[in-house]
Amino acid sequence: MKIALCVKQVPDTTDIRWTENNTIQREGVESVINPYDVYACEFALKLKEKLSNNAEITVFTMAPPQGEDMLRKVMALGCDNAVLISDRKFSGADTYATGLTISTAIKKMLPDFDLIVCGQFAVDGDTAQTGPSIANFLDIPQVTYVTDFTDFGEKTLTLNRVMEDGIETVETELPALVCVMTQSFEPKRPLIGGIIEASKKDVKICTLADLGLEPEKVGLRGSPTYVSRAFRNISTHNAEKFKLGVRESVDLLKERLNL
Amino acid sequence: MPNENNSGILIYAQLTRECYVHTVFFELLNKAKELAQKLGGVDVNAVVFTVPGQIECFKEAFRNMGVNKVYYYENEIFKDYSTEYYSKLIVELVKNTKPEIMLIGATNQGRDLAPRVSGALHTGLTADCTGLDINEKGLLAATRPTFGGQLMATILCKNYPQMATIRPNVFKVNPENNYAETEFISCSANLAEIKNRVKLKEFKKIIENEINELDSAEIIVAGGKGLKNEKGFELLKRFADKIGGVIGATRVAVEMGLAPVSAQIGQTGKTVHPKIYIACGISGAVQHTIGMEGSEHIIAINNDENAPIFDIADTGIVGDFFEIAEEFLKG
């Protein structure tokens, strides 16, 4: 089975700093692999294990050149190949343009894929749209909010997914795309051997020219949406702070609760 | 692109398995009516997938809420949601009827469906909006939190329809919508032309009373990792019972096994806006506050006086939750 695993590098959202103009300071902010993509990776590795290693996992990311470090880290967990989709012209892409770019890269680099595995969403943008957008451009079925797989056949995969009112067990034809929501597998730790092996492997680079897309189809120009205004979310709450004794705190609490 | 899309606003009406129209539809409808006024009184229409005969059950609701047109598809197969059937049929409907705006509730189903529809229509989709408006050029200005809620972005769309998803509980239902003589339009679906490659094998319902409790709660008492263990949550429960509150929790508390997933509030949980929200032992990570900042009055109890929760609380009490709650329960 040929598996494409899509991952994204995100700024650590718990560590956001602001400039004087209330814009996000991007320099010096720690980058981490999107946590849901870690779940996606575990899902792919578990599937590979169940297939008695008769599977090959290729990791894809669309990122600036430093995305290569993350790809090597993911390879060290047991993935086989990596593709860095990178070009200045890709920047500013929304989920539509990102879906087109990544789907084109998968078609080019892994045309005979059976399965694409993504995280359910990325913690920076939190749109949950890029996975379905990739599936749309490849005209393949998608299963989102996946918690685990329960069975697989020659050309099928059976999955559990969480919907708002319950848990569905679905069987999808392959090729398909799945978006993984939770961690239902033991997390993998990179082995020293894995790290050494990963450092020796090639990370293939895919530029705009490699993809053969027109420049107006990618990045900000290829995006049907654009940000017209960004502003800091400043609380409208009072932020009154009291440091009192226990009894006084209780009295204040009662007063505010109208008791 | 010149705007040929002028048939008003189309909303996806999701049905629950118990055959109700999901409340998020009515929330969106109320907002859409407001937008329609700003656009000079355009129609607000709905699309719904039903099993044969079922539409009769919903007609009254659609009329009472003042929907102008309801496009409905009937087939036994629509008792279960299917990404491929639903998205392909909506794409066809949008191409035929040309709405200028399409709104979809950001339920799991809506978030699965919406990007397939927008992608196939080569148009833009803004996810999880918390504000919708019409700008001076008559375009949909969709505002959403990003970077874990710390940055708000107002997003415009170059193509039509301009699409957005909105989480349940963000907009309010207006029970006083004007009655309309809704036009019900039966749409024919040529399902043979659509590949449906995902088959539902089994469905297990989750019974979660807490979900509804949180939605309608006037007081929510939420705990975070500062409550440390089961004992902390037991105390939280006694405190909540005493004041008639419903229990909520942060993601960390849920992951520590202190509260059920259904109690989770925040980015990956529920969005709530009770009259009073009491955050106990919650530091105030944006992933949590994004789900509760809309509360009318926020009270925070935390022994770390530098906890970010105090920046968004109306009343911040620096102190030990265990001591304060025990004292409170004494009367």
Notable characteristics:
heterodimer, A: 259 residues, alpha/beta, Rossmann fold, nine-stranded mixed sheet, two-stranded antiparallel ribbon, 7 helices, 29% strand, globular, B: 331 residues, 2 domains, seven-stranded parallel sheet, five-stranded parallel sheet, 10 helices, 16 strands, 30% helix
General description of the model:
The complex is a heterodimer of chains A (259) and B (331). By secondary structure, chain A is an alpha/beta fold. Chain A has a single domain, classed as HUPs (Rossmann fold, 3-Layer(aba) Sandwich). In chain A, 29% of the residues lie in helices and 29% in strands. In chain A, the strands form 2 sheets. Chain A has a 9-stranded mixed β-sheet with strand order 9-8-7-10-6-1-4-5-11, sandwiched between helices. In chain A, a hairpin with a 3-residue loop joins strand 7 and strand 8 (156-163). Chain A is globular and about 70 Å long. Chain A starts with a strand and ends with a helix. The mean pLDDT of chain A is 89. Chain B has 2 domains: 9-193, Rossmann fold (3-Layer(aba) Sandwich); 209-330, 3-Layer(aba) Sandwich (Rossmann fold), CATH 3.40.50. Chain B is elongated. In chain B, helix 3 (83-97) packs across helix 4 (108-120) and helix 6 packs across helix 10 (321-330). Chain B starts with 8 loop residues before the first strand and ends with a helix.
What's the quick description here?
Chain A is an alpha/beta fold and 259 residues long. Chain A is built from seven helices and 13 strands. The longest helix of chain A has 16 residues, at 35-50.
